[in-house]
Amino acid sequence: MSATLAIVNANIKTMNPKQPVAQALAIKGNKIIKVGTNGDIEPFIGDNTRVLHLEGKTVLPGFIDTHIHVADYGRCLMWLDLTGAKSIADLQQLIKEKAKTMLSDRWIIGQGWNETRFTEQRPPTVAELDEAAASNPVILYREAAMICAANTKAIQLAGVTEQTQPPAGGAIDKTPEGKLAGVFRDTAANLIWQAVPEPTEDELLEATAYASQKIFQAGITSINWLVISESELSIIQKLHEQDRLLFRVNVVVPEALLEKAVALKSKSNEILRVGGAFIVTDGYLDSKEAALQKPYSDDPANSGKMLLSEEQLEAQVKRALAFGVQPVIHAMGDKAIDTTLGVIERNKKDGVRFRIEQAAVLNMPLIKRLKQQGAVVTIQPKVITTEFAVWSANQRLGNRARLLHPLKTLLDEGVNVAAGSDCPMEPLSALLGVEEMVTRQSYPEQRLSIDEALRLYTVNAAYSSGEEAAKGSLEEGKLADITILSKDLSEVPTGEIKDVAVDFVVLNGMLLVVT
User: Fold this and answer.
1) At what angle do helices 334-347 and 364-373 cross, to 10 degrees?
2) pLDDT value at position 267?
3) Which residues of 384-405 are buried (b: 16+ CB within 10 A; e: fewer)?
4) Could you tell me whether strands 272-280 and 5-8 are parallel, antiparallel, or unpaired per DSSP bridges?
5) Residue 507 C-alpha from the chain's centroid
């Protein structure tokens, strides 16, 4: 039997414990048919076999991102890039230049500012944004975390005043005099965003297709697409029909939109499936809305907030199971995790794999229960850095911070942990995620080895969505989804892992050059 594609002279890390490393592999159609040495693969090379000589380059199972908002990422790619701003004056100049190219009243949207890079070491004020563009509404998102800065026109169009109360899980910055400072955090950022006009479906389709190209260029062959709005369901369907999905998609829809996803679910195949229902039990740590068993250390009157009662959570879980999809449950605080595990314990069934998104504040009894219930924990590594560096987790949680995202402990206790990006709220890059986990600064005993970190983006990620029989490791009979790197990650300084280039991607057995 001749292979359609053979990869030889490679440094193959299979993620298969029975055969951790190999030199070559053979593919026929969209499946791997042999993994071994160059000599093992030679009999599979025929006249029509395409042979890729890699000269020692590193071959990995295709990266899997377990949490990405593709349509929102597409929108962000069309926005003003603020990552180069070193001061608020730089930020103002970028806005002024953009305003020159736009009609008045058109929204200026940007992303990428970070006050830690500014000489002023603070976010921009509403007055500073007004100075840069008084005639255009302006909304600028921070580089990491869900924070935006807005000018007066944007705030007025959003109908926000000094009397507006932040929604659950959000915060509105104010001056000492009680005036709006122009910065909106977490769910409060949606107060401004809801005033931004929706793009047309064609505009959103093209933006999402562009985002798909960027995801492919990052070496990602599978994603869990976290849907935010109903319009995304038709976008996904159209991209699939037009063969513009450059990766496999596991669609995770909000539980409230399950019925709207029936048509898309009926079209499930090896490239596209509707596999999850997203359920939110509590808020986020940075806004002190994650539900804790004991109050925040720096806010003794506040223990966060459950957004669902236990009965409501159980009802939503039952709906997801009845629909035939995996419950994907956001539970960040230890109280929310405890409540979620109680629901899982009562609804566990053969063949059902529960997934807890961002299970952050943990303790050993909870970790033991996660293992007992076979629950999967999915995390976004860059968020971990943000929690400690930006949101002062040690101050907010005290001693509990020791087991905030305790990745090493979870793995050692036998809990399956998988990783994603939360793009566009955090940067899109599995390699950046690996670097973050390997170089973790807070509680370095929770650092992972490179191979452990890679498993979170490969075999563990496949397991998290119940697809480990088909992908996640390079084994005979599995789908030929492969990421090929220019260098071995173990041979570069750990602080440069994110900079290693993706040279090739094999998706469904087809070799694609990343440019």
Assistant:
1) 30
2) 85
3) bbbbbebbebbebbeebbbbbb
4) unpaired
5) 20
The token pair that represents 267 in the structure block = 């079209």
Instruction: Write down the domain spans for the chain.
Output: 1-62+472-515, 71-193
Q: Is the peptide bond before 381 cis (omega within 30 degrees of 0)?
A: no
pLDDT tens readout for residues 149-206: 999 999 999 999 999 999 988 999 999 999 999 999 989 999 999 999 988 888 889 9
Classified by CATH at the fold level, domain 1-62+472-515 comes out as Urease, subunit C; domain 1 (2.30.40)
pLDDT at 1 (0 to 100): 83
Report the alpha-carbon distance of residue 116 to residue 129 in Å, rounded. 18
Identity of the residue numbered 232: E
Please determine whether the domains at 1-62+472-515 and 71-193 fall in the same fold group of CATH: no
Three-class DSSP category at 82:
coil
Q: What is the DSSP string of 10-49?
A: -EEE---TTS-EESEEEEETTEEEEEE-HHHHGGG--TT-
Q: Tokens 């915060």, residue?
A: 171
How many whole angstroms separate alpha carbon 140 and alpha carbon 81? Answer: 10
pLDDT score, position 145: 65
> How many other β-carbons are positioned within 10 Å of the β-carbon of residue 260?
14
pLDDT for 404: 97
Low-confidence residues in the chain, pLDDT < 50: none
The predicted structure's pLDDT at residue 76: 84
> Could you give the angle at the alpha carbon of 264 between the alpha carbons of 258 and 268, nearest 5°?
115
Tokens (6 digits) for 259: 């019925």
Does the domain made of 71-193 have the CATH classification 3.10.310.70? yes
- Alpha-carbon gap, residue 450 to 309, rounded angstroms: 39
DSSP 50: E
How far does the chain reach from its first CA to its final CA, in angstroms? Answer: 32
Amino acid at site 52: L
Side-chain-side CA neighbours of residue 459 (13 Å): 17
CA separation for the pair 500, 485 (Å, rounded)? 7
- What are the E-state strand segments in 37-169? 50-53, 58-61, 63-68, 80-81, 108-113, 138-142, 147-150
